[in-house]
Each structure stands twice: as structure tokens, then as C-alpha cells.
């Protein structure tokens, strides 16, 4: 079952970025701009993870966390805040937080922390899928000057190492194995997000955009992941 995540964040841009990022990873996301609206949603729906900004109007993240913990000790809570004082983290953990993310944050950090918290809090649901086993067993391969190592979930260029998510590794693997042919957005979505979901080209494009920023020397002129407009993406194989 796909985890349901609630975001309570009063900054519109941060809220939108978090929602798009988590949805691109396949999660169901409900986002709210204040603690009171989030509290009402929590009363009406079950969520698998709560991501709460500390400083919000009407009801703060700390207040909302205290309210949730009065009757729910299991649902994990990650605090999101721009404040870096140690005392904030101490208070957060004392009242029941499971982790902390400080703004500004990177997309890979957010995904890694979300997955780690879900794994820790729901170990019975953290089994490795067939696709995940398959992609991590793929032999290392070269894409231009980038060496991709699926078993280590990373790519290397010279002395630079790029930590990648399972989905990013799977996208690169599909493009490499296509041997220069175009891989459609539909095929990417079904393989990387699951066949039980309606194809969403926006999620594919957002993930590819983030992946390009991570691995391309110039994301605006990509040489590893090239767009074939109206169809999908390809890795252009150099002629023999």
C-alpha cells in the first residue's frame, strides 16, 4: 500500500516543492498551509507520516505534535524548520518527533530521511521488492563519462560521487539497457512507479529534471538523458 504523507508548511513555495518531490516518489500527499487545517485533516484521515513545519500560524508544529501524541504514539513525525538552534531539536524529540530536516534542504536528503523513518516505524512494510532487487543486481555501466554502480546506489565521475535513489538508478538502467532507443514516459512510469497507478508524465519529467541536476555537467544541455519531444527520453549511444 502506498504511504500517505501529510505536509503542514506555511511557506507556499516550500510546501509545493515538498509535495511535488514526494509525489514524484510515488507517495500520496496532502498539503496544508497551517497547523489548524492539518489538525482537522489528521482527525478525519489516517496518515503514515506527518511532516510539520515548526513555525506556523494559528497552531505551531510543536503544538500539533503534542496534540497528535496525546492519542497516537506510532505515526512518525518529521519536523521541518529553518531554525537551527539545538534547543529546537531537543524540544522536538522530547515531545515525540522522529526526525528533523532543516531548511534549506536537498531533495535527496528529504527522500532519504522519509524512507528511513518509514522503514524504522513500519518494518513489516519495508520488504525489498522484486524490481528493487533486480535494479541493485544490475552490473555497473558507463554512460558518457559517468560510471553508474547500482549495487551501491551511486554514480561516479572522476573523484565526484553522486548518491542516487532507487528510482533514479532504475531510470538510468532502463535508458542504458535500451541501447540508444527511446524509452517512453509511460514505460518509465509503469516500471519506476508501478503498474497500479495511472501514468503521470509530470512525475517522470520532474524526476528526470532532478536527476539531470545531479549527474549532468550542464543540465541545460544534457548528454546522458536526452529528451525526445512528445515521446520520452533516450541515452544516445556513441556509434561503434
UniProtKB/TrEMBL annotation:
GO molecular function: phosphorelay response regulator activity; transcription cis-regulatory region binding
Encoding gene per record: phoP_3
A Pfam family reported for this protein in Swiss-Prot or TrEMBL: Trans_reg_C
OmpR/PhoB-type domain boundaries: 138-237
One BP term from GO: regulation of DNA-templated transcription
DNA-binding found in the keyword field: yes
Lineage: Bacteria, Pseudomonadati, Planctomycetota, Planctomycetia, Planctomycetales
Signal peptide: none
CDD domains registered for this protein in UniProt: REC_OmpR, trans_reg_C
DNA-binding region ranges: 138-237
UniProt-listed SUPFAM superfamilies: C-terminal effector domain of the bipartite response regulators, CheY-like
Protein's recorded name: Alkaline phosphatase synthesis transcriptional regulatory protein PhoP
Gene3D superfamilies: 3.40.50.2300, 6.10.250.690, Winged helix-like DNA-binding domain superfamily/Winged helix DNA-binding domain
The organism of origin for this protein: Crateriforma conspicua
Domain Response regulatory: 4-118
GO cellular component terms attached to this protein's record: cytosol; protein-DNA complex
InterPro entries on file: CheY-like_superfamily, OmpR/PhoB-type_DNA-bd, Sig_transdc_resp-reg_C-effctor, Sig_transdc_resp-reg_receiver, WalR-like, WH-like_DNA-bd_sf
Residues with the 4-aspartylphosphate modification: 53
Keywords of the record: DNA-binding, Phosphoprotein
Amino acid at each position: 500500500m502506498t504511504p500517505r504523507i501529510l505536509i503542514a508548511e506555511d511557506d507556499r513555495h516550500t510546501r509545493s516543492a515538498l509535495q511535488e518531490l514526494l509525489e514524484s516518489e510515488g507517495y500520496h500527499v496532502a498539503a496544508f498551509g497551517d497547523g489548524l487545517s492539518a489538525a482537522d485533516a489528521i482527525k478525519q484521515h489516517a496518515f503514515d507520516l506527518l511532516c510539520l513545519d515548526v513555525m506556523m500560524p494559528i497552531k505551531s508544529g510543536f503544538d500539533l505534535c503534542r496534540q497528535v501524541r496525546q492519542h497516537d504514539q506510532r505515526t512518525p513525525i518529521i519536523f521541518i524548520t529553518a531554525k537551527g538552534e539545538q534547543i529546537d531539536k531537543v524540544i522536538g524529540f522530547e515531545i515525540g518527533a522522529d526526525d528533523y530536516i532543516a531548511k534549506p534542504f536537498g531533495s535527496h536528503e528529504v527522500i532519504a530521511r522519509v524512507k528511513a523513518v518509514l522503514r524504522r516505524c513500519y518494518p513489516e512494510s519495508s520488504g525489498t521488492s522484486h524490481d528493487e532487487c533486480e535494479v541493485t543486481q544490475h552490473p555497473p555501466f558507463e554512460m558518457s563519462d559517468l560510471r553508474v554502480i547500482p549495487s551501491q546506489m551511486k554514480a561516479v565521475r572522476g573523484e565526484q560521487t553522486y548518491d542516487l535513489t532507487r528510482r533514479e538508478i532504475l531510470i538510468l538502467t532502463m535508458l542504458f539497457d535500451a541501447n540508444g532507443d527511446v524509452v517512453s514516459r509511460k514505460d518509465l512510469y509503469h516500471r519506476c512507479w508501478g503498474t497500479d497507478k495511472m501514468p503521470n508524465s509530470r512525475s517522470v519529467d520532474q524526476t528526470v529534471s532532478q536527476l539531470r541536476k545531479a549527474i549532468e555537467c550542464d543540465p541545460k544541455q544534457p548528454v546522458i538523458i536526452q529528451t525526445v519531444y512528445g515521446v520520452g527520453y533516450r541515452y544516445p549511444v556513441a556509434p561503434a
